[in-house]
Specification:
This protein is α+β, with helices and mostly antiparallel strands. Helix content is about 25%, strand content about 25%. It is built from seven helices and nine strands. It is globular.
Length: about 290
Amino acid sequence: MIERILPSGVATAVAYGDPDTPDGLLPEEEAHIRRAVPARRQEYATARRCARGALADLGLPPVPLPTGPSGAPRWPDGITGSITHCRGYRAAAVARTTGTAALGIDAERHLPLPEGGLKVIAHDEELRSLTRLERAHPGIRWDTLLFSAKEAVYKAWFPRFPRKLSFRDASLAFRTGPAGTSGTFTARLLVPDSPYRRFEGRWIVAGGLVATAVHLAAPSPGDADRRPGHAGRVVRPLACPTGTPFARGDSAKRLDAPLPNQDRTEAALPAIGAAEERGRSRGASGPA
């Protein structure tokens, strides 16, 4: 799913769930996750497996991806990347810094935010815009899409500009494609010292999930605007040796299959206040 909204030059790998095989964590990663409950350990390990699969598509050998102080993975030199995981879905995206300056991805269950959550993360102008979008496209959970897009913005921001951000440090505007289930967005950055005024991103809703991505192209000599670009991708399937639905590169075999149902309480996004405190205070969205 995430591979549909990223440009060429970005390698991806995804998993629809966690395999029943040993997690394969490397010692440097084990130190971070050793006290975690089994479910957390599994999602962490699967996300690392995805990341190593994506790195392999760039020709890199398996390397440890320990968690840094911000909660984001520490990528090899010359690589930028992003990891996301929600129930039933894990994904990683990586690219070489010669072509990509910043990269952020996020995926969430396509379910409503907890009650009151939207008012915490949205500006008044965003609330008005979402109201119009809901009237035009009532099948989209615009509140969750906004949350996810802001997470992608912050993940793209932090490795390049390490300072604290809040949900209100960006104001987003969404655009829909012809089908109404995918589109683009612009994130206007409201940070006074930001070298960039905006990020451009893409979004998609499919298979019970909402996914968002921000890609900032590396500037070429003389490119003063340093604007992000998007391009088409080439699909290359790869079977998962563990038997878990898994795809590397641009392939996801069961992309549009609906995920198992779950009630709204269980599927709700992390408590907004906790996410604000845990993630924004560290400049990222927490350990990935």
